[in-house]
Design a protein that fits this description.
Subcellular location: Cytoplasm, Cytosol
Structural class: mainly alpha
Distance between the termini: 203 Å
Strand content: under 5%
Protein name: Exocyst complex component
Order of helices and strands: HHHHHHHHHHHHHEHEHHHHHHHHHHHHH
Keywords: Cytoplasm, Exocytosis, Transport
Strand order of the largest sheet: 1-2
Number of strands: 2
Largest sheet: 2 strands, antiparallel
Shape: elongated
Pfam family, one: EXOC6_Sec15_N
GO biological process, one term: vesicle tethering involved in exocytosis
Radius of gyration: 67 Å
Length: about 800
C-alpha cells in the first residue's frame, strides 16, 4: 500500500500588521474558540465600512487551524495503515478456515440429506393431521349447528315459538361466530332475523285473533257475571224477607234462627262458586305473545301495543249504536264493558307486568266517563219509567259485579241517584193513567170470587181480610174490582220505587219511598177517586159502593206502608211510629158526603109526605105519620143492604147525618110557613114519629156499642127536646138557664117561640077572652103563654 502525499503546511501570518489589527485578530480568534457570538464584530465591521478587514482576520484564523487539522489527520492515517497490515496478515488464515468449513458443510449435507427428507415427510404429515383435526372439528360444529337448526325448524312447525327462539338465540350466541363454513354462516346470519320476524308475525296474528275473540268472550263473561250477581241479589232478598218475617213473629224458636243463618251461608257458597265459574277464559295466546316478545327484547313495544289496542276496543265498546234502541242493546253494552274489565283484572293479577294498575285505572275512568255520558243522554230521552228502571237495575248489577274486582262505581250510582226524581215522576204519571183506566172500568158492583186463588190474589195479598177464617166460595167481597186493581198498581209502584232506590249506594231510603208513596196516594189516587165521585157517582148504590171501597182502601193503605217498610228493610215498629193520617181523607169524606147527600135527597122525597099531615087534628096517629113510616122502611132497607158492605163506623156516620137531616126537616116544617097552627095531638103524633126513630136506632145496637147508640140518638136530639118541651107541663122552664142547659140545650129560642106561638090555644088570644072571662085558664096554657112572653122579651 502506498502512503499518501503529505499535505502542505500553511505558514504563519506575515508580521507587519499594526498592533490594533493584531489585537482585533486575537479578539476574533478568542471569540471563535470560545464559541461566542460574532455579531458584535460583524456589526462593528459594517459600521466602520471595512468588511475586508473582518474577512482577512477570518481567513488568517482559518489558516492557523489548518495545520492543527493536518497533524491530527496524519496521526490517524498511520493507525489505519497499521490496521490494514494486520488484516493482510490474517488473510491466509481465513482462506484455510473457509476451505475447512466448506469441507465440513459438504460432509454435513451428505449425512443430513436422509434426515431432511424424513423431516419434510414429518412436517407434511403433521400439517395433514392438523388440517384433518380442523376439518373434523368444523364438521362436528356444523353438525351441532344443523341439529340446532333442525330442532328450531321442528319447534316452528309444531308452533313452539318460544323454544324455537331459544334455539335461535343459542345458535347466535354459541355457534354463529365459531361456524367455520362461511356459506353456512351467511345462511344463518340471513335466516336468524327472518325466523324472528316470522315468529313475531305469527304471534302477532295469534294475538290479533285473540283480541277479536276476547270481545265475544268478554260479552259472554259479563253477561254471566251480571247474571250471577242478579241471582245472588235475588237470594239475598229472599233471605232478607224470611228474616224480616221471622223478626216480626212474636214466637220464633231458636232452631228456626239457626236454620236461617245456615241457609244464608249456603247461599254465599253458591254465589262464590258461581262467580268462580264465570272467570273461565283463556289468556294463553296473550301471555304467549307477551313472553315471546320479551324473548325478542320487545317487551315495552308489546305493552304499548296491547294497551293501545285494548283502549281502542274499549272506546269502540263504549259507543252506542244509533240503529238499535238503547233499551234493546243496553244489556249487551254493559255486559261487554263488564267482561272487558274482568279480563283486565285477571291480566293485571297474572300477566307479570303486562299492564299496570295505573293503566287499568285509566281505562276504567275512561269507561266510567263514557257510561255516565251515555246514561245521562239516554235517561234524558226516556219517557217510560219501566224502561228507566230496567236500565238502572242492570247498571246496579254491573256495579255489584265489578265492585268485587276492586273497581269503584260511585260515579255510576250518582248518575242513577240524579235521575231519581224523574223516574218517580214518570212512575207517578204511569200509575195515574193506570188508575184512571181502572176507575173508569169500575161497575160499582161487589166483586165475586169463585175460587180460593182469586180470594188469595185479590184479598189476602193486600191483607184486606177482616177475619183469618177463609170464607165459603163463591165469595162476594164488600168492595168492587177497583180496589184490588188500584192496590196492584200501588204495590207495583212500591216495588218499583224500592227496586230503583235499593242497590244504589243509599242504605236508608225508606223516607224517600214513603214520600213518593204519600204523593201517589194523596195526589194521584185521591184525586182520581175525587174525580170519580164527582163525575160518575149518581145513585145511592154507587155512592155506597164507593164508600165501602174507601173503607177497604183504609186497610190497604196500612198494608202499603208496611209493605214499603218491609221492602226497605225498616222494622215495622219504626214504620208504625212514622205513620201519618189516612192519605185518602179527601176522597173518603167526599164519598161519605156524596152518600149522605144522595140519601138526604132520597129522604127528602119521602119527607114531602109531611105536607099531608093534619097539624090541627085532635086525633093522635097511633102508628105514626105516613112520612115517618116511609122513611123508617127505607132506612131499614138501607141498613140491611149497607151493613153487608159498609163498615159499622162508616154506616154510623152516614146514618147519624141522615137522622140529623130528618130532625132538621121536621123542625123546619114545624117552624115554617106550611104549618099555621099546631094541636097537641099533632105534637103527640110527632112524638110517635120520634119513637119510631128511636126504635130504629135501637135496632142498630148489634152493629153499634152502647156509647155509639147513644151518640146516634143525639142526631135527632133537637126534635126530641122540642117535643119534650111542648109536651111538658111547665114549658116556661125553658127560660130557666139550669133546666135549659140540662134538658133543652139543643133548642134555639127563636124556633121554640115560633112553634109555641102555633101551639097556643085560640081561646087564649085577645079576642077569645070575652067568652071565657069568668072561667079558669089551663095551667099548661098559662105556662106556655108565659114562655112565649118571655121569649118575646128576650128577642
Amino acid at each position: 500500500m502506498q502512503s499518501p502525499k503529505p499535505r502542505r503546511k500553511a505558514g504563519p501570518a506575515t508580521p507587519g500588521a499594526d498592533s490594533a489589527e493584531k489585537l482585533e485578530e486575537l479578539l476574533i480568534s478568542s471569540a471563535i474558540c470560545n464559541g461566542e457570538d460574532l455579531g458584535p464584530f460583524v456589526r462593528k465591521t459594517f459600521a466602520t465600512g471595512k468588511p475586508e478587514t473582518l474577512l482577512h482576520h477570518l481567513k488568517l484564523f482559518a489558516r492557523s487551524k489548518e495545520s492543527e487539522i493536518e497533524e491530527v489527520c496524519k496521526a490517524h492515517y498511520q493507525d489505519f495503515i497499521n490496521a490494514v497490515d494486520d488484516l493482510k496478515s490474517l488473510l491466509s488464515d481465513v482462506e484455510s478456515l473457509k476451505s475447512s468449513l466448506s469441507d465440513s458443510n459438504s460432509k454435513l449435507q451428505s449425512i443430513a440429506a436422509p434426515l431432511l427428507s424424513s423431516l419434510d415427510s414429518l412436517v407434511e404429515a403433521q400439517t395433514v393431521s392438523k388440517n384433518v383435526d380442523l376439518a373434523v372439528r368444523a364438521v362436528t360444529h356444523c353438525v351441532r349447528v344443523m341439529e340446532m337448526v333442525s330442532r328450531a325448524n321442528q319447534h316452528l312447525q309444531s308452533g313452539s315459538f318460544y323454544m324455537a327462539l331459544k334455539c335461535v338465540d343459542s345458535i347466535e350466541s354459541e355457534f354463529l361466530e365459531k361456524t367455520p363454513s362461511s356459506t353456512l354462516k351467511r345462511m344463518l346470519e340471513k335466516r336468524i332475523p327472518e325466523i324472528r320476524g316470522y315468529v313475531e308475525r305469527k304471534v302477532s296474528k295469534e294475538l290479533g285473533d285473540w283480541l277479536v275473540e276476547i270481545r265475544v268472550v268478554s260479552r259472554n263473561l259479563g253477561q254471566l257475571a251480571i247474571g250471577e250477581a242478579s241471582a245472588a241479589r235475588q237470594r239475598e232478598e229472599e233471605l232478607r224477607m224470611k228474616q224480616k218475617e221471622a223478626e216480626e213473629q212474636s214466637r220464633l224458636s231458636l232452631r228456626d234462627c239457626v236454620y236461617a243463618l245456615k241457609e244464608e251461608d249456603d247461599d254465599d257458597d253458591v254465589y262464590e262458586s258461581g262467580l268462580e265459574g264465570s272467570e273461565a277464559f283463556d289468556l294463553t295466546p296473550l301471555y304467549r305473545a307477551f313472553h315471546i316478545h320479551q324473548t325478542l327484547s320487545l317487551e315495552d313495544p308489546f305493552k304499548r301495543y296491547y294497551f293501545d289496542n285494548r283502549e281502542l276496543q274499549l272506546k269502540s265498546d263504549s259507543q252506542v249504536s244509533s240503529m238499535t234502541p238503547f233499551l234493546e242493546s243496553h244489556q249487551t253494552f254493559f255486559a261487554q264493558i263488564a267482561g272487558f274489565f274482568i279480563v283486565e283484572d285477571r291480566v293485571l293479577r297474572t300477566g307479570g307486568g303486562l299492564i299496570s294498575k295505573n293503566e287499568v285505572e285509566f281505562l276504567w275512568d275512561l269507561a266510567v266517563a263514557n257510561m255516565c255520558a251515555v246514561l245521562e243522554d239516554q235517561f234524558s230521552r226516556m219517557q217510560t219509567a219501566n224502561h228507566l228502571l230496567l236500565i238502572k237495575d242492570y247498571v246496579s248489577l254491573l256495579g255489584v259485579s265489578l265492585r268485587r274486582y276492586g273497581y269503584t262505581v260511585d260515579a255510576l250510582l250518582q248518575v242513577l241517584s240524579k235521575h231519581r226524581d224523574k223516574y218517580h215522576e214518570l212512575l207517578l204519571s204511569d200509575c195515574r193513567k193506570q188508575m184512571i183506566e181502572a176507575l173508569a172500568a169500575d161497575k160499582f158492583e161487589q166483586m165475586l170470587m169463585k175460587k180460593e186463588y182469586e180470594y188469595s190474589m185479590n184479598v189476602l195479598s193486600f191483607q184486606l181480610q177482616t177475619s183469618d177464617i177463609a170464607p165459603a166460595f163463591p165469595y162476594i167481597a164488600p168492595f168492587s174490582t177497583t180496589v184490588p186493581d188500584c192496590c196492584r198498581i200501588v204495590r207495583s209502584f212500591i216495588e218499583d220505587s224500592v227496586s230503583f232506590m235499593s242497590h244504589g249506594g243509599q242504605l236508608d231510603f225508606y223516607d224517600v219511598v214513603k214520600k213518593y208513596l204519600d204523593r201517589l196516594l194523596g195526589e194521584v189516587l185521591d184525586q182520581a177517586l175525587l174525580k170519580l165521585i164527582n163525575t160518575s157517582v149518581h145513585g145511592v148504590s154507587q155512592a155506597m159502593q164507593v164508600a165501602a171501597n174507601m173503607a177497604v182502601f183504609e186497610r190497604a193503605c196500612d198494608f202499603f206502608f208496611r209493605h214499603a217498610a218491609q221492602l226497605s228493610g225498616v222494622p215495622l215498629r219504626m214504620a208504625e211510629r212514622g205513620r201519618r193520617h189516612f192519605p185518602l181523607t179527601k176522597s173518603q169524606n167526599a164519598a161519605e158526603d156524596t152518600l149522605s147527600g144522595l140519601l138526604k135527597s132520597k129522604i127528602d122525597g119521602f119527607m114531602t109526605l109531611i105536607e099531608n099531615v093534619n097539624w090541627t087534628s085532635d086525633d093522635v096517629p097511633q102508628g105514626g105519620n105516613e112520612y115517618m113510616n116511609e122513611v123508617i122502611i127505607y132506612l131499614e132497607t138501607l141498613v140491611s143492604t149497607a151493613q153487608q158492605i159498609l163498615p159499622a163506623k162508616v154506616l154510623k156516620r152516614v146514618l147519624r147525618d141522615v137522622l140529623a137531616h130528618i130532625s132538621e126537616r121536621v123542625v123546619g116544617t114545624l117552624c115554617g110557613d106550611v104549618v099555621k097552627r099546631l094541636s097537641m095531638a099533632a105534637i103527640k103524633g110527632v112524638e110517635v114519629d120520634i119513637q119510631l126513630l128511636e126504635s130504629f136506632t135501637d135496632q142498630l145496637k148489634p152493629l153499634l156499642t152502647d156509647k155509639e147508640a147513644k151518640e146516634m140518638k143525639t142526631a135527632f136530639v133537637e126534635i126530641r127536646q122540642m117535643v119534650n118541651l111542648l109536651l111538658s107541663s111547665h114549658p116556661e122552664n125553658f127560660v130557666n138557664p139550669v133546666i135549659r142547659e140540662r134538658s133543652y140545650n139543643a133548642l134555639d129560642y127563636r124556633k121554640v117561640a115560633a112553634v109555641s106561638e102555633k101551639l097556643r090555644d085560640p081561646s087564649d088570644s085577645i079576642f077569645g077572652t070575652f067568652g071565657t072571662r069568668g072561667s079558669r085558664q089551663n095551667p099548661k096554657n098559662k105556662s106556655l103563654d108565659t114562655l112565649i112572653k118571655r121569649l118575646k122579651d128576650v128577642s
